[in-house]
Amino acid sequence: MIRAYWKLAKTSFKRQMIYRAANLAGIATNLCWGFFRAYLLLAVLEASPGVGGYDHDSIIIYTGFSQALTAPLKVFGWWDLLRTIKSGEIISDFCKPIDFYGMWYARDCGHAVYQLAARGLPLMLLFLAIFRIPLRLSASMGLAFLISMTLALQVSFSWRMIYNAMAFWTLDAKGVAAMANIVSLFLMGFIIPVGFFPPWLQQAVQLTPFPAMFDIPLAILMDVPGTEVLLLLSRQVFWMLILIIAARCLLHIGTKKVVIQGG
Amino acid sequence: MIVAKDLVKEFKIYQHHRGAFGAIRNMFSTKHTIVRAVDQISFQIAAGELVGYLGPNGAGKSTTIKMLTGILVPTSGELTIGGIVPWRERVKHVRRMGVVFGQRTTLWWDLPVIETMELLRHIYKIPERQYRRNMDMFADLLGLSEFLNIPVRSLSLGQRMRADLAAAFLHDPEIVFLDEPTIGLDVLAKERIRQFIATINSEKKTTVILTTHDLGDVAKLCRRVMMIDRGKVLFDGALAELVSRFGGERRLIVDFAEEYDDLSIAGARIVAKEGRKVTYAFHSNGNGVAPLIENLSRNYKWADISLQDPDVETTIRHIYEQWEGDHSSEYC
Amino acid sequence: MQYRVSFLFDLLANLFSSFTDLAAMIIIFTHTPALKGWTLAETAFLFGLTNTSFALAEMIGGGFDVFQLLIREGKFDQMLVRPLGHFFQVMTSEFVLRRFGRLTQGLAIIVVALHQILASETAAIVVLLLLPVIAGGTLFYMALFITQATTAIWTVEGLEVFNIITYGGNEVLSHPLDVFHPVLRRFFTYILPMAFINYIPVAAIIGKPLTAAGVPPWTAWFSPLFGLGAFLLARRFWDFGVRHYQSTGS
Q1: pLDDT band at B18 (very low <50, low <70, confident <90, very high)
Q2: Which of A96, A107, A172 to mutate to test the interface with B (most CBs of B within 10 A)?
Q3: Which structural domain, as residue segments, surrounds residue C28?
Q4: Residue B20: how many CA atoms within 13 Å on its side-chain side?
Q5: Residue contacts between B and C (CB atoms, under 8 Å)
Q6: Partner of B217 for a Cys bridge, out of A209, B212, C62, C156, CB 3.0 to 4.6 A?
C-alpha cells in the first residue's frame, strides 16, 4: 500500500514539472516580493533596533523563508478537495481502494517536495547570496529543521483539509475557507513575524496550531539562542496529532453525510 | 453475484434557508421532506451477465448504482455482491470493482494517459504480468497505444472515454458499472466502445451493469434489461421479451399482385397504403403471423410479403411515453 | 440567489485580506513612531490611496482580469462578432463587486488618516484635490491590467510575472517609497511612474521632501496625467493586440 502512496506523490510531483514557465514566473514574483518585504522590515529594524529579537541577517532569513514557503504551504489558498466535493467528483475517489486522507496527503507531499526543491530552495539560496548572509546550521540543527519542516507541512495540510471539508455542509464553503486561510496566514507569522506582534497577541498565538506551520521551523532555522528544539518539535507533534484527528473526523462525518444523504 | 432484496433509499430534502445566516442555519436545520428515490427493488444478477439498467431521468438509476458501488448506504433492504455488503467492506468491495462515469473522468488531467495507468497499477496492486497483458489487450481493442503518451486534456472525447474504460478494466474487476459510457460520442467511437465492452464481457466473464440513454447500446450489448421508473423495477427480463411484451405491433408489408377495393383482413389494421403496397399492423401475442398470411393467401393474390419486428428503440420510446402518460394522468 | 451568501463571505474574505495588511502596518508602527520620517497616519494615507485606486480598477476593469478565460471559453470570439466595441465588452464582462470590501476600507482609511494629519478646513480642500489623483491611480492600475490581458493574446505561459507590478506595485505603494532600495525608487518614479499614484501627490500635500523620488514637488500637479497617459498607451496596445488575435480554434 505504501507503494501506492509513493506512486501518488511521484505522479503529483511530475504534474508540477509540466508548469515550468509558471514555476519560473513564481520564482521571479517571490524574489521581487521578497525584496519589497525585506526593505520594509529592514527600515523597521533601523527605526527600532532589535525589534522582535531580529537583526539584519535574521530579517533576510525570515523574508527568504517566507517566500520559499509560499508554494509548499499554498498560502494563496487550496481548494482542491472543496472543488471535488462541490462537483461530485469525490464519488470517483470513493471508488478507489485507498484511504481518502492518505491519498490527498500523498498528492500534497508530491507537490510540496517539488515546490521546495524547484522553487523554495533556489529562492532561499538566492536571498542568502544577494544579501551575503552566512547560514550557519549545525548538522543536528539541520536535521531538526528538516523534521520541523516535515511536521509543519503536515500541520498545514491537515488545517487545509479542515477548511476544505466545510464544503460537505455548506455550498458557500469557498468564502469561509478563504477567510480561514487568511487568518491562518496572519497568525502563523507569514505576513509579519510573530516576534513583531504585541505581547498579548504573541501569547494568544502560542495557544493555536498556527505557529507550528511556519514560525517553529523558522525559529529552528534561525537558531535563536535559547531555542529549546525538542520542546518546539513536541509542540508541532502535538498540533499535528490534534489536527490530523480533527481533519479525519470531519472527513469521516462528511463522508457519512454523503453516504446517507447522497451529498 | 449480486443479490438485492427490498432495497430502499430515502433522502431527506432539507429546507434551504437564504441570506447571510442561512448558511449557518442550514447546518442545523431539521425541517425536511422525505423522498423515496429507490422503492423496494429486488433483483439478482449472475456472474458474467451484461445487464442494461434503463429508465428515464430521475427514475432512481444512479441511486441504485451508487448503492451497488458502496457509495450510498440504503435506508433498508439487503444487498450483497459476491458475498460482501458493499458499504460495510468498502475497500474490499471497490478493489474488485470498476466504474466509469461517462460525464467525468478519473484520469489525471494534465498528465499523459500512461501516468494514470501506472498509478492505478499501484493502487490496485496489479501484478506486472497482468498489467502488461491487459495493456496489450487494450492497445488492441481500444487503440490505446495511439494516445498513451498524450496529456488527457489534449485528448478528443472519444479517446478520453476509451482511456477511462481501460482504466476501469485494468485490474480485471469482477464487476464493472458503466454510466453512460457512450455519451456525446460519434457513431464510430460508440461502435468501438460497444465492441470493447462485448469482447471483455465474453472473454473475461466480467459482470457489467450498463446504464445508458443510448438505446443503440442496449440493442447491441444487452441480453437482459432492467427498467426502473420512480424507484420501482417495472421490467426485468430478456430484451427479446421486453420487445415482444411492450413492443406493440409488428408490421406486415404486402405487395399485392392485383388491384382490390377492400383490403381489410381480420386481426390486423391498415396503417399505410401506397399503390399496391399496403402496410398492416398487428399484435403478435396471438398465434404469430401464420393465420394472417393464410387469410391473405385465401382472399388475395400477392407478389411479395415482408415482416417488420418492432426494434428496441421504438419499444423503449413507447414504454417511456406510456409511463409519461400514466404520470400526468395521476397528477390531474 | 445562492450566490448572495457566497458573495457575502467572499466580500468578508476580501475585506479580511486587506485588513491583515492594515493590521501588519499598525503592528509595525507599535515599534516605532515613524518610518523614514513617515508616521502611521501618513503611511495609512498612502495605503488608503493606492488600495482605493487598485480596488476601483479591479472593479471597473474586472473583465481584463478574466480575459484568459474569455479566450479559452471562446467568449471573446462571440464578442468580436457583436456590433459593439470589444474593449468595452471585455471591460464590462465581469464586475467584481467583492472588491467593494477593499474599496470601502481604502476610502475609510483615507478619511481617518486625513483627519489625523490635517486641520479639518484644509482636509476638505484636499479631498477635492484627491479625486483626480484617485482617478489617475485607477486609470494607471487599469492600464496595467489591460497590458497583462493583451499579452494573453500571444502567450499565457508565465503571465503571472505581471503580478509583480500589479499586486507588488500596490504592496510597494502601500508604504513610503523612502524605505526601499534606490533602484526600486527610481524604477517606480522614472520607468514605471507609479509613484504618481500616491507617493508624490501625498508628499506634496503634506509637505514631505521628495528626495526619495528625486522630482520637484510641482510635478505632483501632473499626477493624474500619468495615469491617463498610461491608460491611453495600454488602450493602443490592446487595439494592436486584438488586430493580431488568432482564435484558439478549439
Answers
A1: low
A2: A96
A3: 3-243
A4: 5
A5: 11
A6: B212
